[in-house]
Specification:
Elements (H helix, E strand, L loop, with lengths): L1 E2 L7 E5 L2 H7 L5 E3 L10 E4 L7 H17 L3 H6 L7
Antiparallel strand pairs: 1-2, 2-4, 3-4
Length: 86
């Protein structure tokens, strides 16, 4: 998820593993994602510098997609084109 408001830096929220959540929530420019983390979900928000560099942010977003998609039923994954037919 991404948010863009006025002159503030863009904010990106992404799901992470439990271990990544523990590590990343302590890093400058990162925090537990508002609303999601307060409900026990392991989502991090990149909200300010220094945060993550572009490559690391892309990697975490890709992994977030994989984590979220893996939680879907196989049927739904196939419907969304996330699994090969068969």
């Amino acid at each position: 998820m991404a948010g863009f408001t006025g002159d503030e830096p863009p904010r990106f929220s992404f799901k992470v593993s439990d271990i990544s959540f523990e590590i990343l929530q302590e890093q400058p420019g990162l925090r537990p994602a508002p609303y999601l983390a307060s409900r026990g979900m392991t989502w991090i928000q990149h909200y300010d510098a220094p945060g993550l560099d572009d490559e690391a942010l892309r990697d975490y977003i890709r992994e977030s997609h994989r984590i979220v998609a893996s939680g879907l039923t196989k049927k739904r994954q196939r419907e969304l084109g996330l699994l090969a037919e068969g």
